[in-house]
Amino acid sequence: MQVFMNLVLLVQLLSAVVMIGLVLVQHGKGADMGASFGGGASGSLFGATGSANFLSRSTAICATVFFLSTLGMAYFGNVRGTNVQGSVLDVGSAPAASAVEAASAPAPTGAELIPGAAPAAASK
């Protein structure tokens, strides 16, 4: 299961890096105005309008892969084996007191809530 989780993480990282690169390569909406006055877009690698379609479709594909890998990581991160018991917070800690014991215990005072403070003296 851990190998599959690492594989999904690798796919997510690669899709994120590729998507960032594709977004940075694309030109904004204001770049079309300069191209209409002889910006030289017709001599580009993808043609006059081919780069916008190619880059936007590639970005959409990378975004879909990123989204699906994120869902996969969320699913496989929550799947537990049969040998795992309890909560993440329970690891390495003592078992929690029962609800009856917690209700009968006196409420802590302000001094007891301060870490490292000496216990309060018993009142006479």
UniProtKB/TrEMBL annotation:
Region (Disordered): 104-124
Membrane topology designation: Multi-pass membrane protein
Coiled coil residues, start to end: none
Membrane-spanning residues: 54-76
Main location: membrane
PANTHER family: PROTEIN-EXPORT MEMBRANE PROTEIN SECG
Function per UniProt: Involved in protein export. Participates in an early event of protein translocation.
UniProt protein name: Protein-export membrane protein SecG
Source organism of this protein record: Leptothrix discophora
Gene name of this polypeptide: secG
